[in-house]
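Reviewers asked in the last cycle whether our approach scales beyond single polypeptides. To address this, we selected a multi-component target totalling 780 residues and predicted its structure end to end. The input consisted of the following lines:
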Amino acid sequence: MVGGDEPLTAVTPIAKGLAWSVLAALAILCVTPLVALGSIAASSLNLQEAVAHLTDPVVLRALRFTLIQAGLSTILSIALAIPVLIALRQTQSAGVTRIVRSLFALPLVLPQLVAALAIVAVFGQNGWLSALMDQMELSWPSIYGLAGILLAHVFFNLPLAVRVFDQALQSLPPEYEKNAAQLGMYGLRRFMLIEGVVIKDAIGGVATLIFLLCATSFTIVLVLGGGPRSTTLEVAIYQALAFDFDLGRALFLIVLQIVVAGAVVLAFFRRAHTDLGSSGFSLSAHVDTRAAMAGVRSWRPGAVILLALGVLFVGLPFAAIAIDGVASNPLTVWFRPSVMSAVWTSVVIGLSSALLAVLAATLLSNAGSGRMSSVLPMLALIFPPIVLSAGWFLTIRQYADPFGFAAMLVIVINAAMALPFVLRIIDRAFATHRARHSALEAQLGMGGWARWRLSLLPSLRLPLIVGFAFAFALSLGDFGVVALFGSDGLQTLPYLIYASFGSYRTQDAAALALLLSLLVFLAIALADFAARQDRNDLGARS
Amino acid sequence: MKQAHIVLDNVRFTHGEGGTAFVFDAAFEPGKITAVMGASGGGKSTLLNLLAGFLRPESGTLLVNGMDMTKVHPMHRPMSMIFQDHNLFAHLTVAQNVGLGIDPQLRLDVADNLQISAALESVGLGGYEKRSPTTLSGGERQRVALARMLVRERPILLMDEALASLGPGLRQSVLALVKELQQAKKLTVIMVTHDPLDAKLVADNVVFLAEQRVICHGSVDEILNEPSDLRVATYLGI
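The resulting structure, written as structure tokens, was:
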């Protein structure tokens, strides 16, 4: 070995082969439906029809609405995140900081379907705020359409932006804080001169990420869109397949979706050097470097109000899930046979896809393919679940009944969607492990199974557990794939919730939403507990 | 500038909960350089952070020329502090970094810019105005911090291991500059250092910390050449 950057523990051919097969499987998953769709298009559609789709008002309206709502969601999320962030940075109390950071991590794992229902419960026409307004004899508009979509997207992405910015600001040396205090820098000008620079660097990456998340958001738009006027490309694909069965239009929309998302990724991710999702997707709280300044900073009343508003906006939907869920007589709903069997189906699918995602991430990381961890999230945003499932649905349909493959496809696509996040968690652990132990492993000649058993697995146990829990939670709450493949034969918990909500059985939907949230947060809490145990063990040993 | 007389009277501070309290009683001679020495954990940095106001004491009084500074905000204290690293904002130019010492909102006029250039000249960095701190060596960065100290015109300079990351040659030249500026402006300098050589080179007095308090205080000769306290002798290896 010549290069200084070469890992000391050589990557074995087996490890390389396994990593390549994971990549090949991913490529097959993404490309096959495209090829198959292309051949359907070539054989069944003529050029005239394709051109007709270009001017199809349904398609054009969907494209325009997709871009407008994603753009507005991005602007609102970031514009509101920055004041909340400033207020958060002014907080003196470590307790308040910790609570806000934990609360802002929660939307990350909250199923979109549950969030959509919660937004309706808080902001809807029969919701909490409208009840408040009624008492003041003010009218409350319907939130279905653009307003509801924006509310839900800001609910998810404001906390995400705050977390990413907050993490970026942690990179500022603690001396800056002291220098600024000594020099008497304060207020907005101080923020522009110090924090503003970091935020300016991070804003491009964050905005692109939020734009793509909103442009490809499916469940929220399906539930809160409420009509053809507010339909995005994703939902239009679903409608073309599920209701109109217009294959040509579905195909055209899928290609359009990939082109639009791909163009955004190419245009912005090249320039934005922000490490996409480095913090937004990690669940662990980070260390506060500002402890040294305790007692010197002053907390202004404006900051208290801003932070309280941010906490209310993010916290109220969670309160709605809990309160409406408990009020809906949940136990009678939960123990219905149909619900029990949906829970079972969801858990089995969740466990399988989490296992698959963790396995794939481990094989990739082990071969040192860590660079994939920055590429994969973009692929996941270009090929969102609805595109993959629609593509495979149309592909399989040519040869067999797609519903027969439903469970398998849901598992595989959910695993692929979780992979970028899981890979990031696991790959970082691998990198740390390599930096610390690869010299020692090489010197002792530890290889093969002995290296896994004695060196790798003990230090990877924690990230594997956290990654597994995260993948499990994502899959449990997924509705994008199930929306298309769900049927009487395959009912997951989100599928049941959507069915209840769609048929105005609001009580049932609230009870089921509470159940799904409890399952998701139970998984995350267990992983968190394991993480804490692990850290305590380490503390006791050293 | 009026020479500053600094007194710490029973200043008590505890890091975190359940830690042992630091208790400082000390006086620093005006217009002199005092080296603060002692083993790690002895409280050297804590002492400087208390002086600068980055930490608030639980009890006790800090007096500068008889004025109670205990509750005064860092920016209103008559001192400038230089850290081991990150004294400069990496995204601002050298001139802007110095200019923050004149106006923290960075609204600078022609006269201010002339003053900045003069300050840079006097630390040996004439013509460095437009440079970015990231292109400077460690020694040059500390010189820029000294230039900012000059334009702030505060009578006290606190240095928290400000030279610890420099090699011996650079260290000596920056120390010589500190001594030169101190003499010219009659500054009271308090510098934390690990190295007895630093102290012998420029300091007049030494304050020695151990067990979270000041255990002895005297001229460089008394403390470093003929230490009467066994703990100091052990630390110095003599």
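Chain B has a mean pLDDT of 91. We regard this as preliminary and will revisit it once experimental data from Aim 1 are available.
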